[in-house]
Amino acid sequence: MNTKNIFVSIIVLILLGLSACVPSVPANPADRFAGTWSGTMSFSDDANRNEDVIVTILPGCAEGEVCGASNNTTVSCAWEIILEKVNGDVFEYTFSKTLSGECPALGDGTLTLQADGTLMREHKTPLFTASGVLTR
Predict the structure, then answer these.
(1) Per-residue pLDDT tens for 44-71?
(2) In this predicted model, what pLDDT tens digit does every residue of 116-131 receive, in sequence order?
(3) Among 28, 48, 72, 92, which has the minimal tally of Cβ within 10 Å of its Cβ?
(4) CA torsion 16→60→62→56, rounded to 10°?
């Protein structure tokens, strides 16, 4: 093998090695949010009010489609989540209907990916805003 072929082979191997180290980005940007997340929400209308929630985002979500559910275990209510859009690290959603319990499907919100791998959730209704950190 001549020197030129050895040099080209080394360059190809280096490039292959570097490309293997690059983290893959999901083809669907919503997939970064997929999974089950839980945490405690604080409410703007009552500083002493805290409620536990579980948010499940399904993989393969598309804008305008049902994408998961939010379950407030404190008040025993669950709602269907519709994906409005993903904008960078922000998943924008709307509650489309109540799945269980007596709580109306009001409002919309955001799930924002944080640098530490958690989600900051902010949900707005006409009566209050609920916010808190969710973990997997």
Answers:
(1) 999 999 999 999 999 999 999 999 999 9
(2) 999 999 999 999 999 9
(3) 48
(4) -130
Q: 52 in the Ramachandran plot: left (φ > 0), alpha (ψ -120 to 50) or beta?
A: beta
CB atoms closer than 10 angstroms to residue 23? 4
Sign of CA dihedral 78, 84, 86, 89: negative
Q: Which of 40, 38, 42 is nearest to 56 (CA)?
A: 38
Q: Supply the pTM of this predicted model.
A: 0.79
Distance CA 58, CA 91 (A): 12
Going from the C-alpha of 101 to that of each of 73, 74, 97, the distances in angstroms are 10, 11, 11
* Domains identified in the chain and CATH numbers: 29-135 (2.40.128)
Amino acid letter, 2: N
